[in-house]
């Protein structure tokens, strides 16, 4: 589903996506951190699910740029230098409507691997 409007809100560090649905216009606001950890790039997802790289320490990342790619996607630029991966309209819609499910799964992976969203936290294990 194609968004009818996309707006980068630098002050709140979010991306707003609006969709025309049968029940009326619906908007979603996605945080830079959520978009960064969900990047569709090979750097994040790998070339198969077992090659995916868990993104840690991204709670302070900023969304600094947005560029349209054809009629099917956008490229997002983050202040940590990440700017690869094309966010297709279908992928952005999925991230929007399933945000809680995706976010909960991410937090579970962080917890399981004893990692943190905080860029300044290192978890030390003694054995």
Could you please describe the fold and organization of this structure?
The chain has 127 residues and is an alpha+beta fold. The chain has a domain at 32-112: NE0471 N-terminal domain-like. It has 4 helices and 6 strands, in the order E-E-E-H-H-E-E-E-H-H. The protein is globular and about 40 Å long. The mean pLDDT is 92.
CA-based shape: globular
Rounded to an integer in angstroms, the radius of gyration calculated over CA atoms is 15 Å
Instruction: Estimate what percentage of residues fall within beta strands.
Output: 25-35%
Given the helix and strand composition, which structural class is it?
alpha+beta
How do the helices and strands follow one another from N- to C-terminus?
EEEHHEEEHH
Number of strands: 6
Round the mean pLDDT to the nearest integer and report it: 92
Low-pLDDT residue spans = none
Strand order of the largest sheet: 1-2-3
The major pleated sheet works out as: 3 strands, antiparallel
Could you please say which CATH topology of the domain at 32-112 applies here?
A: NE0471 N-terminal domain-like
* Helix segment tally: 4
Level-2 CATH architecture of the domain at 32-112: 2-Layer Sandwich
Q: For the record, what CATH class of the domain at 32-112 applies?
A: Alpha Beta
Helix content: 25-40%
Query: Kindly, what is the distance between the CA atoms of the first and last residues, rounded to a whole number of angstroms?
Result: 50 Å
Write the layout of secondary structure elements.
Layout: E1 5-9, E2 14-21, E3 24-31, H1 32-37, H2 42-45, E4 63-69, E5 73-78, E6 86-88, H3 89-97, H4 99-112
Antiparallel strand pairs: 1-2, 2-3, 4-5, 5-6
